[in-house]
Design goal:
Length: 162
């Protein structure tokens, strides 16, 4: 049984801190290993990308494209995960598999703007699936296994300006 006063780090686990800026004889005097004086030697200075007042390269370079702010975000389900859930009896292939069933089975955490079916992996069970979107390869794979895919496109909101 170890006692509290006998507990110690393993040999070499705790390394002594180097005391910088304590004279030339210490090996880390004067500039304390930073190599320079002035702004770069000071603490808390972040001047990455600063080019002395010249327009920085990240601002000079041409820009292309944009990220659409209100783009649709889909929860994605691959065929291999769908087959695993059917094998584990979390999904019933005899019933229609819709977005609510996928959430209940734990394949999707939240529906977001809908569920999109992707074709990674293989599907061997005959299953009827109703989802917001599906890749062409996923639809082909499900139909090859004897099932069907019904794609319900999301309802696009009417433009408020019109």
């Amino acid at each position: 049984m170890t006692r509290l006063n006998e507990i110690a780090d393993n040999a070499g686990a705790a390394k002594k801190l180097m005391r910088v800026g304590r004279g030339v004889g210490s090996g880390k005097g004067k500039t304390a290993g930073r190599g320079v004086k002035g702004q770069k030697s000071r603490r808390g200075v972040s001047i990455n990308g600063f080019e002395g007042g010249q327009m920085p390269v990240h601002m000079r370079a041409p820009k292309r494209g944009f990220n659409k702010l209100n783009r649709a975000r889909y929860a994605e389900v691959n065929l291999n995960r769908l087959q695993k859930a059917i094998d584990a009896k979390r999904l019933d292939p005899s019933k229609t598999v819709d977005e609510a069933a996928l959430v209940a089975a734990g394949l999707v955490r939240r529906v977001r703007d809908g569920v999109r079916l992707l074709a990674q992996g293989a599907l061997t069970s005959k299953v009827s699936i109703v989802v917001t979107g599906a890749s062409a390869a996923a639809v082909t794979a499900v139909e090859k296994a004897g099932g069907s895919v019904t794609v319900t496109k999301p309802v696009v909101a009417e433009d408020a300006t019109a």
